[in-house]
Amino acid sequence: MNTLFAPFLAYIKQFNSRLVGLCMLFLIAGFLTACDVMAQPDQDSLSTEFETMRIQENHPDYTVDISYPQTLNRKIDHKVSEFISQRLVRFKDDLLETALSETQAGDNQYTLNARIAYHSDGVLAIRISESARIGPSEALEVVHTFNFNRYTGEDIALDNLFPHQADYLQVLSALSYKELIEDPRLSGVDAAMLWEGTQPFSQNFSTFLFENTTLTLIFNSGQVAPAGYGAISIHLQLSDLSQQLAYNAKAFEANYVSIYPIFPVVLEGVASNESAYFKPVEPVKVELKAGEKPIALTFDDGPHPKFTLQVAKVLDAYKIKGTFFVIGKRARAYPQVLEQVAAQGHSIGNHTWSHPQLTKLSTLKVQEQVDMTQRTVERITGKAPKYLRVPYGRFNQDILTWANMPLIQWSVDPEDWKSRDAQNIAGHIIEHTKSGDIILLHDIHSATVEALPVIIEQLQKQGFVFVTVDQLIDLKKGQVYYKGPPKAAKPLD
Ligand code: ZN
Fold first, then answer.
1. Torsions phi, psi of 129, nearest 5?
2. Which entry of 300, 301, 416, 437 is annotated as an active-site residue?
3. From the CA of 327, how far away is ligand 1's center (Å)?
4. 240 included as an active-site residue
5. Could you report the per-residue pLDDT of 122-167, keeping only the tens digit for each?
């Protein structure tokens, strides 16, 4: 930090105190930004699956407006926020080097918008539009892209897409030149400039988005056309490309999925064989006092990057534990959410890999659905689930045999997924719950989160005690449970 700013400190000594003050503010703002202290979740963008973080600074001499997504892959999030911090520091450095007398308040603006252009099980592509304006000159607009392997958090380089094709740049160069020269948007542009900007050098093809069946190449402002044209994107269909390049989009995706069927969490500063996960919390034996009625709150279909954490927060506030039946695929997408919920001592159950109706699948597929989820949850939390909840409650004797686990159904169902109404949900549960009940909820809706405090407070008043499913019932393999004691576990009929 000191070395980085030393030249500037020397530089500003020659100037007036306003500049010194401004510089100090830059230093502080830069530092805070680097530490992410100023980033707050943006409440306006709740509709997307990914939460957006926002950094805004309204300084008398400049404004900053940055938004970027939280992917919940620590490594990816770290890389993106690190990149943004560096770009912001660069803007502030440039601003310092410009005499302030030449700029007007409001002239100096920095905006950056990072958004997820594409995401799948294996790939996450981020497009970053940056605009930096200092003084009366035109804003400098640059598009940056990131393409990540979603599991490892590693960058996917363009040559990763064409591993067996040494001349892929020549092919891309020829294709882009052909596409651009015929592009009506660029009809007035000198062909020599188009040719120059599409020469087969890696820096000419460093900005790209891997979007499933499309490879989007972005030529930044000034690269293939004069700056006034802005960034120019072309979309190459990989199916077309595959005739010329040894490449197949599906194979690429499948490759990633099969290499990394389970999210290997890579944390900095943690030796790979050392557990980066939480130390499993052993279930606490619940001693019921006279008159207390045990019940279990169960939450299906998560982890959800937003609502699962909110549910866990409410449960924590009332110091009670719940049971989360997670979908393996979602656990892999949001390992940190699952890790946190498990670390708080909640019980984690298996709700299959992708939520199919198991009775429609082959035995092999059923096993895959259950096993992949077991392994994923174990990798993330350190503990494999001890019970299964089948999607839609549908099962048969084969499934029960193959799953080789207790199967947990439910006895109170407010249909929170249907009504999405907090009052209805709470009302139904409060009216119908009896001792030993297993209550079915879904931690993927805001109404469910909203209903929770009312449910907990009202039922606690009536003498109910909230426990996890394994605390409620003495579970046995191959048994199906709808309720816990006092009514004995109901065997399969
Ligand atoms: Zn479900």
1. -105, 125
2. 300
3. 8
4. no
5. 788 999 999 999 888 888 899 999 998 876 788 888 877 776 667 8
